[in-house]
Structure to design on (147 residues):
């Protein structure tokens, strides 16, 4: 799960998807394309919204996406088009590129919608992001569960 800062959207996506899949079968993590928040806790507003839905994300710390993530993960979900492009720029070959998907395309196929960056807005934006990610992660979990 990849966004810009790895403190608002992708920590929520990580926490939500983890809550829907068995821990022993799936390795799920998040990262940011920027280096702005390396080592930081998720944003307080993400922590609060997740907690309202019984998801604890306070174990997470910001980290920056790097090329070796292409070796560690089978699927890389970008939260928006800008981060999608930033991830693709780091790809070494078409195999890397094919791992990168826009998360909202799981709901709205080929529409290329963004999960909006809630950082500069209020708590409502975080609730909206949570709902969008919960719906997308439901679809992702149902697709992956037979594994
Ligand atoms: P995120 O939100 O990409 O969903 O974690 C942001 C967090 C921090 C910044 C931008 C977006 N920032 O500019 O510091």
């Amino acid at each position: 799960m990849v966004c810009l800062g790895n403190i608002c959207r992708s920590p929520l996506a990580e926490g939500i998807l983890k809550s829907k899949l068995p821990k022993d079968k799936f390795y799920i993590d998040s990262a940011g394309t920027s280096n702005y928040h390396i080592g930081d806790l998720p944003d307080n507003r993400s922590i609060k919204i997740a907690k309202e839905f019984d998801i604890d994300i306070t174990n997470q710390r910001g980290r920056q996406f790097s090329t070796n993530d292409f070796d560690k993960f089978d699927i890389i979900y970008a939260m928006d088009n800008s981060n999608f492009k930033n991830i693709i720029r780091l790809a070494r070959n078409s195999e890397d590129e094919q791992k990168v998907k826009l998360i909202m395309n799981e709901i709205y196929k080929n529409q290329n919608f963004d999960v909006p960056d809630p950082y500069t807005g209020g708590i409502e934006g975080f609730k909206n992001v949570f709902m969008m990610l919960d719906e997308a992660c439901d679809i992702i979990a149902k697709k992956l569960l037979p594994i």
Q: What stands out?
A: Residues 58 and 117 are 20 Å apart (CA to CA).
